[in-house]
Amino acid sequence: MVKDRFGALKQSTQSRLCLVGLEGSGKTTLFTHMKTGKFQKKIKPTRGISFETWMPKSEVHEGNKVVSTKMSFNVWDFSGCEDYRILHQLFVSEGAVYVIVWNLALDESRSTIAYWLNTIAAHAGPTAQVLIVGTHLDNLKDSEKVMEMLERKYYNDRYPSVRGVMAVSCSNGQNIDRLSKKICQLAYDYRRSIMVPTSFQKAINAIPKEIPREGSTPAPIMELHNFDKVLAKFGIDEVQATAALRYLSSVGAVVHLQLLQFDDVVGVITDPAWFVEVYSD
């Protein structure tokens, strides 16, 4: 067992997957097919951000070996509506896999690919890993030319976070499995580089149950000093608390309101879905 000043260390078991892109591009349909293996034609538009868990089994490359592993993703499906863009920027953070989705049948100038690449670069930094995915491949005759254009424009030194450009069809399943494997490989490679105290990983599932709703409102918000007391229950002391909060935020377990003042409390939101619902109203 590897140890450091924080105690026993293990490879991170959690990853975060964010689906972003223009409204109607097929983000939710794409993820539904990835998760269920089926095409679902009628899906309601996403409001704000929707939250899912995804635990695929995948074969990944580890050096010269191929290993079977079970991944664990917190999936954030961002609405493509422009009204939510300020909200979305609050949740773009380091360490996630970002899938920028674009309907190949539309003109590339409407894709918002450049907007999302710049937003991710500004808020997530160099640890973000980005895939550009074109949907509706079955409706496009000149898909090879379009994909070549996208690779020339975005898969280059100007955008170092881009790890690939792909085209898929949700209706017939073309390249869906390939995309899933690519996402798992990217997350696995990043996860292998992150050694996390076992106490941090125990806190992920237990924190929502441990944290009371403060004050007279049912808001799942805690001031930082109170959040530190909860972390202490898992053996996480004040020295470790900053690193623990950063890790919990990066995997989507909590939201750290470092710069945002909300209801006179600058602290930690322990239920991101609640915050999105309130903000969307």
What report would you give on this structure?
This protein is α/β, with parallel strands linked by helices. The chain has helices spanning 27-36, 85-90, 113-124, 143-154, 176-192, 198-210, 224-232, 238-250, 272-280, and strands spanning 2-4, 7-11, 15-21, 49-54, 57-62, 65-70, 73-78, 97-103, 129-135, 162-167, 195-197, 221-223, 255-256, 267-269. Strands 4-7-3-8-9-10 form a six-stranded mixed sheet, sandwiched between helices.
General shape: globular
CA radius of gyration: 19 Å
Structural class of the secondary elements? alpha/beta
Q: Average pLDDT across residues?
A: 82
Question: What is the strand tally?
Answer: 14
Write out the strand line-up for the largest beta sheet, numbering strands in chain order: 4-7-3-8-9-10
Largest sheet: 6 strands, mixed
Contiguous runs where pLDDT drops below 50 for at least 5 residues:
259-265
Order of helices and strands: EEEHEEEEHEHEHEHEHEHHEEH
Distance between the termini: 47 Å
Helix percentage: 25-40%
Strand content: 15-25%
Summed up, the helix count is 9
List the topology elements:
Blueprint: E1 2-4, E2 7-11, E3 15-21, H1 27-36, E4 49-54, E5 57-62, E6 65-70, E7 73-78, H2 85-90, E8 97-103, H3 113-124, E9 129-135, H4 143-154, E10 162-167, H5 176-192, E11 195-197, H6 198-210, E12 221-223, H7 224-232, H8 238-250, E13 255-256, E14 267-269, H9 272-280
Parallel strand pairs: 3-7, 3-8, 8-9, 9-10
Antiparallel strand pairs: 1-2, 2-11, 4-7, 5-6, 12-14, 13-14
